[in-house]
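Researcher: Good morning. I'm working through a list of sequences from a screen, and I'd like to move beyond sequence-only analysis. For each chain I'm collecting a predicted structure so we can compare shapes side by side. This is the next one on the list. No need for commentary yet; just the structure.
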Amino acid sequence: MSNRRNWLKQIGLGTIGLGFCQFEAFANPPLENYIPPSSDKSPILLRSNENPYGPSPLARLAMQKSINNSNRYGWNASEELISLIAKKNNVSDNNILLGAGSTEILDLVLQYTALKKGNFILAETTFDYWTFPSEKLGSKKITVPLTADKKHDLTAMLKTIDSDTKMIYICNPNNPTGTICDREHLVSFVKEASKKAIVFVDEAYIDFTNEQSLSNLVIENKNLIITKTFSKMYGLAGARIGYAVANSSTIEELSILKSSPNLSISVVTTAAAIASLNDEKFIREVSSLNEEVKKYTIEQLTRLGLTCIPSYSNFIYFSLENYKKDYFKQLENNNIIGTKIYEENGKWTRITIGTMKEMQQFIEAIK
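Model: Good morning. Structure tokens for this chain:
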């Protein structure tokens, strides 16, 4: 606790007149008041599953106050953040490794597994941008189709594992489909699959659900690695901060591949993450707004005759198979940036859930 007080004082948040009581007052206005300003010419960004409300008000203030300490390395700040993350995940400090977004953790794990040569297994379709460098490093990609309702086929994935398999990747909730694995089934899968290879579970979107993380399983399981991020729910995508939760021995092995473990995060970003973890009001409001706007958007898409997959995230996966217009042209004409077709069979695409105003504009654009 003393370390935390010292750090807060260093960044100016523990000084008299600007403590956490004042922090709460700063955060009291409605969340919509903190939406980053944009001009009429700015595109509506519904592409990358970002939080449209920006960072927590407390995080913004913490970043401002921490700038003066950017001339110093952030060892103490990293230790403070790691302790808070460990507490949130019911693990010890030595079960946590920080990264510049969960992407850095993914890159680190693929390097770790590529050293052993072999193959890695993932769903088709899932978040797969990280797989390209893995293949360049000599690993072979094996994909397993989703089920008919767009969920991971864990049974088929388990059967796909062979003697050359070094890693199995599970994005839960899955991006881009928004579906989630049954926890009991997933726990059983991890228990069996991890006997043969590393199981990497990406929980980037689990904060949008009421599901329990698998983080408590890493204490006993050396072949389970979980990644989480501050990019989505916490609105820090551009600040770049994520982390791995794994067995302490696995964290040690991963850390060897980094020249300066836990030091790739700036003191400004670290301050934002610490403040974010203390801003429960912000999380409640983001979660509530996301559910409200998601419900509206799915209802409107359904009225247009478009099939939507139930979403456990901050985006919606829907089919353009029955859409008669040029969907992407409609977005372009209305200055909206969406994504792409992920599955040609059914013309499945994804849209990020923005603010209510943004999603109303989106629906009007495609009517």
